[in-house]
Amino acid sequence: MLTHSEENYLKAIYHLSLIEDNGVSTNAIAQKMNTKASSVTDMIKKLSEKGFMNYQKYQGVSLTKEGKMTAKMVIRKHRLWEVFLVEKLDFSWDEVHIVAEELEHIKSEKLINKLDAFLGFPKEDPHGDPIPNAKGEVFISEKFLLNEMDANQICICVGVKDTSSEFLQYLDRQNIALGKTIIIKSKESFDNSMVIEVNNVELMISNKIANNILVKKQ
């Protein structure tokens, strides 16, 4: 039985492994977990002894097959709970992360599988991130940044790159959410700012905003 802290480390290392070509460094883990490198070293030793990761000096950390699967199941629980909180309990998408951080440590596999079925086997969470299925399989759909779209294109909001509360609250105020149709009315060549239409309302957004909204083409 893993502790909450051990599960959090596996999840963090899994996420870091998606952007690291080689092993994940101790410093990267420490930064991700907001802790000291010495604490990371102690945890790496514990998880290595339990068979969840491999560590080689100067080559960093990599998860074993069991470690990857365990990390994916924690992520699966987290993202399913986020869907439940948003769709069934009307939480806003900037509120769900902290609550899901607690719920992701529930151990009942039966509960999570029933939750998945109850929600209709969603493929993505409220932020557009893929949800691993019960076998640990992850299906990633093709997405683009809104600022990559041209004038007169029509697209659907499918996620965000920036998941900070400030950004998500901004999107809520603009009525931009997952599944919303976005029409690019015009695009300024000088700074790539855009005039877009959402729910028959036009608004201007900066390139910074457009660079943090993920869409799929319609």
From TrEMBL:
It is found in: Cytoplasm. Its main location: cytoplasm. The keyword Repeat does not apply. Pfam families: Fe_dep_repr_C, Fe_dep_repress, FeoA. GO terms for cellular component: cytoplasm. InterPro entries: DtxR_MntR_Metal-Reg (IPR050536), Fe-transptr_FeoA-like (IPR007167), Fe_dep_repressor (IPR001367), Fe_dep_repressor_sf (IPR036421), FeoA_core_dom (IPR038157), HTH_DTXR (IPR022687), Iron_dep_repressor (IPR022689), Transcriptional_repressor_C (IPR008988). Keywords: DNA-binding, Iron, Transcription, Transcription regulation. GO terms for molecular function: DNA binding; DNA-binding transcription factor activity; protein dimerization activity; transition metal ion binding. Residues 2-64 form the HTH dtxR-type domain. Gene3D superfamilies: 2.30.30.90, Iron dependent repressor, metal binding and dimerisation domain, Winged helix-like DNA-binding domain superfamily/Winged helix DNA-binding domain. Belongs to the DtxR/MntR family. Homodimer. PANTHER family: IRON (METAL) DEPENDENT REPRESSOR, DTXR FAMILY, IRON-DEPENDENT TRANSCRIPTIONAL REGULATOR. In the presence of manganese, represses expression of mntH and mntS. Up-regulates expression of mntP. This is Transcriptional regulator MntR. It comes from Paenimyroides tangerinum.
